[in-house]
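hi support,

uploading two proteins for the ticket. first:
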Amino acid sequence: MLTLHAAPVVRRTPGDAAPLYDAAVAVDGDRIAAIGPLEELRRTYPRARVREWPGELGPAL
């Protein structure tokens, strides 16, 4: 099942100088399918489950 992990701030790389705001990471199984504005990803993946997270999402180190 595809899941949108949404947060107020999403960083694509460690130290990302231009983070995305009100964004999400679309995860399909064990792979990242897309990263972008939450509303855009909701339209692209209308059947996706949405998990809302506080704060920031970013890559693990």
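and the second one:
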Amino acid sequence: MNNLTLSQKIAAKTIVMIIFLFKLGNRQTRKKIAFGIARIIFALSPKTRKRSINNLRVAMTDQSSEDRIQYLAITAYQHIVFGVLEIFWFEDLEYTFEMDKETKAIIASGVPLSIATMHLSCYEAVPFALQKLTGRVTTLSKVPKFAAGLFSLYAKNGVCCVDKSQAGAFFSLLRKISSNGVVCLHSDHFGSDTDVEFFQKKTGAPAGPVMLSAYAKTPLLVAYAVLEKITLIQSILKRFLNFP
């Protein structure tokens, strides 16, 4: 950590301390702490608060109650924070998978796959869950320098994690899918690679998963995870596009 700024060193030490405190309690305790942290962040970060509320207004045009929108935004953010922190214990979680027969056949065939994932309440649940299912998952992540130790979490669970900030990151993904890999990319970030219409609104979206799917001539799957219970992750996969 010698090349880090003072603020980055403080942040790194804070992360280590939070992880240590979390390990002292059970999952229910961690959830309560995560929900408390989320409320603090939501209250102190105008950017996070505004983005969450505006997204809900776009998605729920029939919801006129500002109190209800505020409640849903806070609740959603609490689960997001909890999901982020739970990546440290993914190996302890139980996974179930929901997919139709066609998708199940694609997974079982062993072909390379491009999977567009959504964060929802479980930040990295999809690549970790699919690693248990396929054993050949690669994902892309931009981890800050002061938190570089997080890459060991991916390795610990057998997931190959490509650093988004490294030169030629996308070519690394191309090599992985060319060698029969399963590449999972988050696709619900704000992006402008391609124009799309979402909830009757013109917007942009990242095109990485589609490009990988077209390159490897393999189906594009969409996947998301739901934290149903405190110890159960349900991963839901759907076939979205098929390149012949």
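thanks. also noticed: The chain has two domains: 6-88, 93-241.
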